[in-house]
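Before a colleague's protein record goes any further, I have to sign it off. I want your independent view on whether this chain really folds as the tokens say. The record follows directly below this note.
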Amino acid sequence: MTLPLELPEIETIRRDLDREIAGKKIKAVEVSSTSVIEGSKNKKAFNAELVGTKLGLVERKGLYIFTELDKKKILFIKIGTGASIRRHATKDATDKDTVLKITFTVGGQLRIVDPKEESKVSVFSLEDLEDPDFIEEKFPEFKFLGMDPALEPEPWTEFAKRVLREGESTDLKSLLFDDSVVVGVGDVYSDEILFHAGLRHDRQSDSLSIQEVRRLYRSIVEVIVEAVKYRGTSIEEREFLDVFGEPGGFAEHLAVYGREGLFSPTSKKPVQKVKHKGRWTFFCETQV
């Protein structure tokens, strides 16, 4: 099973794109699969939206990457599971799974390679995006986004309110998967966060003490920031490559994920692997 990209990988891509394509002007657009286009009626209409426009700063909301165009429009990109977004010279050979090419007047191309064709690219006007109803229709997940530790972590007291919602409780792994609590945490980073917080994946959120909530908060921020520093995680289940075609370096720093039977880096006890709600989960018996 191929795992989807998580926050550190998407943030790594965003930062690279901001350095590489901000300020560039689009010369041509080639769409190989209309399944990746949202908002435009067809390839011709999509091309017309982009050709001749200049890209602004590359930003991110949740797991969407976006850039404001100079014609009062915004280009959104959602990278699908198993997909990659890459910089290329115009003369480079084209991968058979390339679904989109954007050629710049200077500085080569940007390509999305997506075997499953799950990526989504769309262009919307600033006027439309000022309408709350329009945003709710096109991006319903934006309304409920939780803490984004890679951009601006909220105060731990606000995070605690999300975790200790009155009348609500769930296991901690499911809690971390909830984008209304924290953005972009999945299989890999949930296990790493819980290990460093010393908390079990099946512990109920309403059983946490304030000190444990604070520990969980600190672990989320530290693990995500460190993973971004090492440019994401490339593993067998997720062969992540950055904009330059290079793998992320955080796999070498994983404490428990994928390390079944190896010694935990802190307790020197073997890492265990169990199936929890259909997901393989790695942890140490010292987690409580």
The longest strand covers residues 55-61.
